[in-house]
Amino acid sequence: MAQPDSTRKSHAVVIDVADDAEPKCCCVCTEPVEWVAVGRCGHRDVCAGCATRIRFFQDDRRCCICRAHCPTVLVTRADDDGASSSSRQQGFVLPTRLPPTAASGRVGSRAGSYWYHGATGTYFDDRRPYRAAIKLCVKPPPPPCPASQGAVAVSLGAPSQPAAGANASLDAPRRPTPVVFAVIYLCVIMVLVTMSGAFFQVADRYYQKVTIVVAFCLLSAVALVVTIRWWNRCKRPPT
């Protein structure tokens, strides 16, 4: 909290530092950190997961704070004071010579009292973050973030097209279904049957009855042809 300096008659303001009880967060993912990656510059602001991703997938061996080149880093606990605050300012003393088991090209091996991950040039003083780093480097890299969330690419030169599943033309008339044509055809046939039956009853000669039957067959065929042509015409897309 900012307080005025009452001991001296000046406008100096004393600003209290942040409370040490607050959890430390990673400067990359802004999540509370349990393990931090420390380079020779001594910064402890990047969690082990973000440091592994940056050093493995992006092949970037620089510090995220001061951009100093750190060929090797040490992953240790975020709340580990080590040798008090002086060690934090001077940085950790990393092993200067790698054992033969940590030769170049090896994914991981022991380096004295540390676990060494050769793909990222990282030392681990605990086996848990070391195993997590090995699993993380097997996964594919995360996809790049888009320029803006929810952005839609629009091509000004391309003609506009309706979206899939959307009604292309809301004002277009509804087309009749096959059931409608079947009902119309059956109604025509019933009318022809009724008329043919009426004429057949009043006909007293043989040739008249034959003429009625032939006329019924011809009219039924014509009705069927007309119905089929109408249906095919309605199926055509509008031009």
Overview of this structure, please?
Helices cover 35% and strands 11% of the residues. The protein is built from five helices and seven strands; from the N terminus they run E-E-E-H-E-H-E-E-E-H-H-H. The protein has helices at residues 48-56, 84-90, 127-138, 178-202, 206-235, and strands at 2-4, 13-15, 35-38, 73-77, 108-111, 114-117, 122-124. The strands form two sheets. It has a five-stranded mixed beta sheet with strand order 3-4-7-6-5, with helices on one face. Helix 1 packs across helix 3 (127-138) and helix 4 (178-202) packs antiparallel against helix 5 (206-235). Mean pLDDT is 73; it is low at 13-18, 82-91, 100-106 and 150-171.
- Biggest sheet character: 5 strands, mixed
Number of domains: 2
String of helices and strands = EEEHEHEEEHHH
- Count of individual beta strands: 7
Low-confidence stretches: 13-18, 82-91, 100-106, 150-171
Tell me the strand order in the biggest sheet: 3-4-7-6-5
Our estimate of the beta-strand percent is 5-15%
Structural class given helices, strands, pairing? alpha+beta
Radius of gyration: 43 Å
Give the overall silhouette. rod-shaped
**Please, what is the average pLDDT?**
73
**Count, helices:** 5
Q: Report how far apart the termini are.
A: 75 Å
User: What percentage of residues falls in helices of 4 or more residues?
Assistant: 25-40%
